[in-house]
Specification:
The complex is a heterodimer of chains A (265) and B (91). With 265 residues, chain A is of the alpha/beta class. Chain A has helices spanning 16-29, 46-50, 60-64, 70-73, 99-109, 126-133, 146-160, 176-180, 187-194, 206-214, 225-237, 251-264, and strands spanning 3-8, 34-38, 75-76, 83-86, 115-119, 137-142, 166-174, 197-203. An eight-stranded mixed sheet of chain A has the order 3-4-2-5-1-6-7-8, with helices on both faces. In chain A, a hairpin with a 6-residue loop joins strand 3 (75-76) and strand 4 (83-86). The longest helix of chain A has 15 residues, at 146-160. The radius of gyration of chain A is 17 Å and the shape is globular. The two termini of chain A are 30 Å apart. Chain B has 91 residues and is of the alpha+beta class. Classes of the chains: A alpha/beta (265), B alpha+beta (91). At the A-B interface, helix 7 and helix 9 of A face helix 1 of B.
Chain lengths: 265, 91
């Protein structure tokens, strides 16, 4: 029986899709079978981040409407045999699926795969309700900015009222130098305010943009500090005890050393 | 003369944190205004065990920093007390 996790944020542009692609790839690299569902109907992006945009035949609305079988619509990833994408249609509206259809879709996958990750659209309207309907766990992505943390608090409030099994936070695009100078909120400041458990802290990293350009998630790139942070997040999801570094430390160095250490042990 | 070499008293990160605390405090209050009513009635119940007062005279308010000048949101309660409910000098 797999786990169904929705990746959400409230605010747009904080890195939900990148996070979904990287955690999914990270879990697949650890040998888990993973399905990524793009719920950003009308504005799909997950296929592009993964470099699978040319391979999509069916989308999740066609599955929900029973016009194809779910396995027909799953697109196998380029790098990992055990990673699949269920794409969003590019031409429909956010309400093209119902929460009931999402629950049904998720439960049809949960017995056959270890992790179902749902990439939620921005906002807290119908698209949010559809994306969260089938999930038991949630990952909230926020950047260390006032507006993003505020929206994250709103989303956490909504998720709490829906009785989620767990709600965890990823703080994305942290700039360690700015934190050191006191020009950016650190992890403690943000968790203090949101009072939820932190799953990981991801540094701002140019390699994420290059990875997006190439359609290859940064988690596979040991030179990328953000990629290594996502690899550690994937391990934490499997309950492997990977310690969290304070944001103000030299992030990239710390995360790299830990990875090398793990491989050689 | 203004000393320009002196660093600012706090970085913008600290400003962000205190602004957020206020914003989120306000957001949560707006989302669940009943909380303030529940707080008031719980406070009254606790005070009523010790003090004799008229609950119509009681004023409880939550102040956001801008309106009261304080650091963060502030709870003020004004309760004109008539006396103790009972002698409380047991040892």
């Amino acid at each position: 029986m797999g786990e169904i996790i929705v990746v959400t944020s409230g605010k747009g542009g904080v890195g939900k899709t990148t996070t979904t692609a990287n955690i999914g790839s990270g879990l697949a690299a650890l040998g888990k079978s993973v399905v990524l569902i793009d719920m950003d109907i009308g504005l799909r992006n997950l296929d592009v981040i993964l470099g699978l945009e040319q391979k999509i035949v069916y989308d999740l609305v066609q599955v929900a409407e029973g016009r194809c079988r779910v396995k027909q619509a799953l697109v196998k990833d380029k790098r990992y045999d055990n990673l699949y994408l269920l794409a969003a249609p590019q031409t429909k509206d956010k309400d093209a699926v119902t929460p009931e259809q999402m629950v049904k879709l998720c439960s049809s996958l949960v017995d056959d795969y270890d992790y179902i990750l749902i990439d939620c659209p921005a906002g807290i309207e119908q698209g949010f309700r559809n994306a969260t309907a089938g999930a038991a766990k949630a990952i909230v992505v926020a950047t260390p900015e006032v507006n993003s943390v505020r929206d994250a608090d709103r989303v956490v409030g909504l998720l709490e009222s829906e009785d989620f099994e767990s709600i965890q936070l990823i703080i994305n695009r942290v700039r360690p130098q700015m934190v050191r100078k006191g020009e950016m909120m650190d992890m403690d400041a943000i968790t203090n305010i949101l009072s939820i458990n932190v799953l990981g802290v991801v540094p701002d990293d140019e390699a994420i943009i290059a990875a997006g350009n190439m359609g290859e998630p940064a988690v596979a790139n040991p030179q990328s500090p953000a990629g290594m942070a996502y690899a550690n997040i994937a391990r934490r999801i499997l309950d492997v005890n990977v310690p969290m570094l304070p944001i103000s430390e030299n992030f990239s160095f710390g995360e790299k050393v830990k990875n090398i250490f793990r491989k050689r042990r | 003369m203004i000393n320009t070499t002196k660093p600012p008293p706090e970085g913008s990160g600290q400003v962000a944190k205190s602004r957020l605390q206020t914003i989120i405090f306000q957001d949560r209050l707006e989302r669940s205004p009943k909380v303030l009513e529940l707080l008031k009635s719980d406070m009254m119940a606790v005070m009523a065990a010790y003090l004799d007062f008229d609950e119509n005279d009681m004023e409880i308010d939550l102040w956001l920093p801008n309106s009261k000048g304080g650091e963060g949101p502030t709870l003020t309660a004004t309760v004109p007390v008539k006396g103790w409910k009972a002698r409380s000098d047991t040892t």
